[in-house]
Amino acid sequence: MKTICLVACTSRKALRPSPAADLYRSPLFEGGRWFAEHRCDAWYILSARYGLLSPNEEVIPYDESLNRMSESEKVQWAEKVFDRLLAQLESDSRIVFLAGDQYRKYLHRELNERGIETRAPLSELGIGRQVAWLQKLVTEEKRLQDTDRLYSLLQRLAATGNGARRLKECDAQRIPKQGVYFFWEGGQFRMTQPFDGRVVRIGTHAVSQGSKATLWNRLRTHRGGQDGSGNHRGSIFRLHVGQALLRKTKREEQYATWGIGQSASQAIRASEEQIEQEVSAAIGEMPVLWLNVSDSASPDSDRAYLERNLIGLLAGPTGPLDLPSVDWLGHWSTRDAIPSSGLWNVNHVFDEYDPKVVDVLEEYVEMAEGKLVTRTPPFAPANWRTHGPRSRVMTQQLNLV
What does the pLDDT look like over 18-59, one tens digit per residue? Predict the structure, then answer.
């Protein structure tokens, strides 16, 4: 599958004829070029004067903009670009736009009419925030590589037949006794790989010494009953989703008991039944993937290591590389950690991560694949909890959405 990136031209240009890739000099274009060259299979430039340019085409500086064109001229421009682009497309090509609405809207229509999938990962950010995000990818390239590797390993895990399934379709027979789980959510995609879904929660269970909880116990509590009932006082995930739903729909006063206390009377539980049903519906639709990690209940366990460091990888002190969309339910959460991290997690979201976590994850994925591994668990570094990266208060969070 071929992913093609289309990067819009900018007003700042070189003063002499140059290859198209070198003509445009703004930080936004330079960041877009880096993204296109490092994240996509091929790329072209959308030029107000020349239409579609390949990066190596020699062009003369100009002073034209789509913003100064009439609507009919923009339509003609888009048709011209599409005619040339069509020759570069394969049957399964996909298009990533790093371009404003004026450059996208008519071209997007032409592509969609022919069933060509498109994404515009920067469309919800202002220009300054687009530049900041693109520069962040360059400065945190190692973390981006580790994130890509995480998602690649999750794809391998899913290929073993263990998921991802919607939570409401899961049952105890399919799920190992112990493990780590990963949730996705409809409409949430990675900005750095815009056609791939974005993980929205990572969790485990039984990390307290002597705990007897199983992975299915934890997932069933998150899911609620088959009839849609549930108990948010037993699931922090349900608590946070419910708080966000109530805040979004302005029903916080109606359900003022939500999240109050570790237990509740039958009357209170009955009064909360409707919102519990809504939470069950929301979480039940989320695909979940699980990884078998069978070790003893302990805060030093491999499961605790994976949970803490993978959350730190996806969120961390500087915030996520893959930002949530502006309509993500988590933005209505009452806990700042959730919209800041893009995860339905509050613990470890501002922690640095240990890069070795991806190696540990791979060893467990290889076990799931039935491949011979060179050693047996535990795989986490010895004394990781006391000698690894420590929790930090967020100091450089980029609130880009």
Answer: 999 999 999 999 999 999 999 999 999 999 999 999 999 999
136-152 confidence digits (pLDDT tens): 999 999 999 999 999 99
Q: If residue 96 lies in a helix (H) or strand (E), which one and from where to where? A: strand 94-98
User: Whole-angstrom Cα distance, residue 92 to residue 2?
Assistant: 7
From CA 26, how far away is CA 7, in angstroms rounded?
12
**pLDDT < 70 stretches in the chain:** 162-163, 390-401
Tokens of 367: 């076990």
Residue 140 CA to residue 320 CA, distance in Å, equals: 11
According to DSSP, residue 286 is labeled: S
Q: At what angle do helices 127-139 and 141-157 cross, to 10 degrees?
A: 80
d(Cα 269, Cα 263) in Å, to the nearest integer?
9
Placement of tokens 């990675």 in the chain: 190
Buried residues in 49-61 as b, exposed as e (16+ CB within 10 A): ebbbbebebebee
The encoded tokens of residue 112 equal 């969609």
**Strand pairing of 42-47 and 51-53?**
antiparallel
